Amino acid sequence: MSEPEGADDPFDDANQLEVEEQQEHDGQAAEEGASRGRGRGRGRAKGKAAPKRGGRDKDKNKKCFKATCQEKAKAHSKWCVKHSKDTEAMKYQAKSQQDNGKTLQMLETALGDPNKADLALDEFDRHNPQGRFRKNLIDWSAFERKFGRRSEVRNRCAEELMDVTDYVKHKKDRGVSEDKALLDWKELLETDVDREGEGTDVKVWVAVNKKRFRDDISYRDHSLNEGSKQTKGMNSTDRHMPICCVCPRVEIAIAAPKALEKNEKILITCQKGVTDARKALVDALKLAGEDQSADQLQKAYESNCVVRLQMLDIWAAPSLAQIPKQRPLPSQAMFAPGADQTTAPGTPQPQEAAKQQPDAVGVATEDTSPEAVLQKAAEAFRSATPAKTDAKDEKAQGGGDAATPTPKAPKDKDAVNNEGNDQKSEAPSQSTPGGTAAKLSSYLRKEIGNAGSKAQHVDPLGNLMAMAHMEELLQSFMACDSIDALNKAVSDLKNAAVVVRQLKEGATKAAASLRGHILNRQRAQQRKKQQESKQVENQEVLKKKKEAKTAAEEIKKQEATAPPLFQHNWTDLQGSDGAQLATMIQKNTGPANKSINSFDAPCLICNCSFLADFQKNSKVMLMLGGFGGSYKKNTTLKTVGKCQEMVYKNSGLEECMELWTKTEALFHHDFVACSDKMEKYLTAVLKASWLFGYDSQGTFVGTMPNGLASLRMLCSGEVLLVMFELRQLLPAMKILLGKDDVGGMEGVNTFLKNLSVEEIAKLKNNGCHASYIVHQEGQIVYIPVGYVVAEKCMKGVLVYGLRKTVMPATAMASENYSLLTGLFEESKKPVDKMKATLPYLNPDAD
């Protein structure tokens, strides 16, 4: 039994379950079979009935359905092996036609008759010889002319050239008003109708009347009058005669012009391809001349291009005498000054115009357009013998060939022999391709063979023909006396076109290789220059970076030295008279509820039971441990020296809110609670709890966040806090500075950082008393509204804790907050929110 599908995938749970169920089912079936024992017999398949041999013997002797084929037919088919493949190829092409099966029906009708099938398969076999992989497409229009019937409808329109006056008169004769006629004339001019002239003189071609013709055209079906059964028994030697007599081929007088019209595009395509390839070679060599180099690889590319350009010039030359000289390598000699290098091959140079004057009569005026080729072919068909003037022109051209030297001309002896041969073969060269053109093709093949690897490899070389030779071959279609000769000429022309295409592709490839090599070298030189300039630029940048680094190190050294404010020993700071200059903040050890009476003085809360319980809470420990282990990675800490992070719900926020509630209960009065009248931002500020972290060597001066009061609990480390009340600080500062402008909040912070002992004493004498405290782990500090706090980390690798913003409503808090708002305005900072918060600090407000 085969395994279930997908059983080989060990990671597919569904397939694994199916495998287990199948194995379990097989095991149960095996057990049931073992329980039944071996006594019960099993059914056996009955033998099949012997087939009748009458039909097989009949198929064995069946011949191919094709009339002239005596091969045995394939089993279950009416065709032999070869013709079965041909019919299938023909049906495949018929099915590909998007005509709702009409072509396939016409083909099946033709293949249903042995004689029609014989003609159709012979035609298909002639276009697709044995061993050809890609089949030629069938011309179904010609197939229909041979085996079908068609109806044609011809519509003819008579048109007259009219201006606006003639058009209006023409419309009036048909009962149309003049206004309507002028409107129709404007609409007619907006279309793409054929016209002559511009502006007011414009005239258009107007359809006057129409005629319709319907032609019912029938074609010979090329079949024998005798039935297929009468011809099936004939020998192949006797059968050929009646078919040739009854079914003659298309007359050569009809086939030759059609072949000429159909294949003239081959020569035009070859000429266009060679012109494009030659232009690519000339451009590449010109580029090489502008950028000369001693690179051996470039010389090899140039040599290939020069040789292949010479081969194209030989192919396009009208005669041996008009082959241009081979160009020198651009790396050895520049192009000749003043010479046009893009002139078409075969064009005489100015210095050779006098020598080629006789040749110009017969060659320069020759027109190779398709219309001229058709006209020449028609004239050749009408006249059985060539004209005498042509023979004279041929002799004159032969004399011109002998007089003008060629770049790689044959030896003198060979030239004399070739001249004699040209004179002997003047007459036959007019009716059959050959003569001078054939010698040009032979010379081209010889040059390609002598050039070796520099020339393009063409296969087979014997099919190569020069352009003049291909033109003569095309004109010789009208002189063919049989279909076989015409088919051979067409085949030779197509084979020559294939080889010319190879020649063109080789030239294009050589031009691309030379051009790519030069451009790559230019890009490499450009990259080298860019690298050198970049190197100089990098050196300048490194120099500037080094200077900036030195300056940064100096600044860092200055910053590493703590400001004068933090260099004082605040625990024992005395003036010159021995008096204490700073007061320690009141410490409340284990205070009871409602025991702290003032909102306007800072205080320290410690040794409370709820603080110890808070620190032992598992969720709080997880929150603090996570922040303490990650806050030093914060980018803000690296730039500013401190950072903060909000505490979220289900991550310790509930425990923090319980802590703050118990802390606020220690104060005698209640803080301002959140209400619906408050702004959303103020409500969010009062409800939020924050984790903050400091750099272990950090020093900071400033107000509390949002300028309001704050409850701060330190969870790790030790911080020195020095506080100044704005209500006392600003008047004292103005006295010491001797001016009313203190420079905003930045001026206050700078002034406090640089305070000396003498200045602290002066501040005290002018009514500004400094307060300090060393904030330790597990303690809460209350900082009132409007206090400027200087902080310095004293101890601990990790310094972090919790804080919450609170808002007491007292007169001093309102006054300090108003002074703080003024400092922010002087610093050009937004104060809209501060002004909206100020009314809530007024104790008299509702």
From TrEMBL:
<feature type="compositionally biased region" description="Basic and acidic residues">
    <location>
        <begin position="529"/>
        <end position="547"/>
    </location>
</feature>
<feature type="compositionally biased region" description="Basic residues">
    <location>
        <begin position="37"/>
        <end position="53"/>
    </location>
</feature>
<feature type="compositionally biased region" description="Acidic residues">
    <location>
        <begin position="1"/>
        <end position="12"/>
    </location>
</feature>
<feature type="region of interest" description="Disordered">
    <location>
        <begin position="524"/>
        <end position="547"/>
    </location>
</feature>
<feature type="region of interest" description="Disordered">
    <location>
        <begin position="330"/>
        <end position="437"/>
    </location>
</feature>
<feature type="compositionally biased region" description="Polar residues">
    <location>
        <begin position="340"/>
        <end position="350"/>
    </location>
</feature>
<feature type="region of interest" description="Disordered">
    <location>
        <begin position="1"/>
        <end position="61"/>
    </location>
</feature>
<feature type="compositionally biased region" description="Basic and acidic residues">
    <location>
        <begin position="409"/>
        <end position="425"/>
    </location>
</feature>
<protein>
    <submittedName>
        <fullName>Uncharacterized protein</fullName>
    </submittedName>
</protein>
